[in-house]
Design brief:
extended, alpha/beta, 15 strands, Vcp-like ATPase, Chain A, domain 2, Rossmann fold
């Protein structure tokens, strides 16, 4: 695969066909003949540099469906997960496959296992893998809240609404000293995840704020990539069964709360219906009284 860069630094992925740019057309044959590190010219004479794409180029050019994780967060996740060639890693929340591509580069030739429950998201991810030649990611249509199939994992990465529900499975499936990481947009989600980890893990939570500098004037750029999410990194140091059972009950507790809320809503609706009936009865009673009074007056 080759990527072309114009004089302004804009990148174009070569897809094996003639390329049509703002600066003119470049024949596919010319790009194929050009060695990496060389240049090709458009029919108008503008030179484009030809290089191999790196992971940054791929993440920038990948198709995005659901909200995708940013490069700054993906980099920190891979670094803090302590991944290297041959690491066994599970990702849950495939989405567009952005983090899976990053993980695949880190653990190659080992395969990344990625859980997803939505086929439309998985379809986008598969197209991205095919587009960039990523062949060491396996997508499983599976709900991680129901369990983890893989054993002896070096790391588990979560991009989910309720990551705390996965802790009881991670305790059993991670290697001792393995890493569990959750990426959450909300601090409330991170707090619940933190509480579930209490005994079995060493942990820390942080966010990454990225600010570029304009070195022509030596000042920070006006725009920046600020908050995108909270990253919680946890290292497994024990398998405390009591805590694991406590975590297991969290989901049941939440289900009970949901049931109670549902019952309360039903009771409120019934109460409103009763009040409505009472109002209707009062109106009917007033109408009857008015009719009686009217008859008395007529008599």
């Amino acid at each position: 695969m080759k990527i072309l860069i114009d004089p302004k630094g804009r990148k174009y992925i070569f897809k094996g066909e003639d390329m049509h740019t703002k600066d003119g057309m470049i024949k596919a044959d010319e790009i194929n003949k050009c060695e990496v590190g060389g240049t090709v010219k458009t029919h108008l004479g503008t030179e484009y540099a030809v290089i191999h794409p790196n992971i940054t180029d791929i993440l920038q050019k990948a198709r995005r469906g659901p909200q995708a994780i940013t490069l700054k967060d993906a980099s920190l996740i891979v670094g803090y997960a302590n991944l290297h060639s041959g690491s066994k890693v599970l990702n849950s929340g495939t989405g567009s496959g952005i983090i899976d591509i990053f993980l695949a580069y880190a653990v190659e030739p080992e395969k990344v296992i990625s859980y997803e429950i939505r086929e439309d998201f998985a379809k986008i991810a598969r197209k991205n893998f095919e587009k960039f030649g990523i062949d060491n990611v396996e997508i499983k249509m599976k709900n991680i809240y129901e369990g983890i199939d893989e054993e002896n994992l070096d790391a588990i990465i979560l991009d989910l609404p309720e990551p705390w529900l996965v802790v009881r499975f991670a305790v059993e499936k991670l290697k001792m000293g393995g890493i569990l990481i959750s990426f959450s947009p909300s601090i409330e989600q991170s707090k619940k995840f933190h509480d579930a980890l209490d005994i079995n893990f060493l942990q820390e939570t942080f966010e990454c704020v990225l600010r570029n500098w304009d070195m022509k004037v030596v000042r920070p750029c006006s725009r920046m990539i600020a908050h995108t999410g909270f990253i919680t990194v946890a290292r497994l140091i024990s398998r405390n069964k009591a805590k694991s059972e406590e975590i297991k009950d969290m989901k049941k507790s939440e289900e009970i709360k949901d049931m109670k809320k549902s019952e309360e809503i039903k009771d409120m609706k019934k109460s409103e219906e009763i009040k409505s009936d009472e109002v209707n009865n009062e109106v009917e009673s007033e109408e009857i009284n008015n009719e009686v009074e009217s008859e008395k007056i007529n008599n």
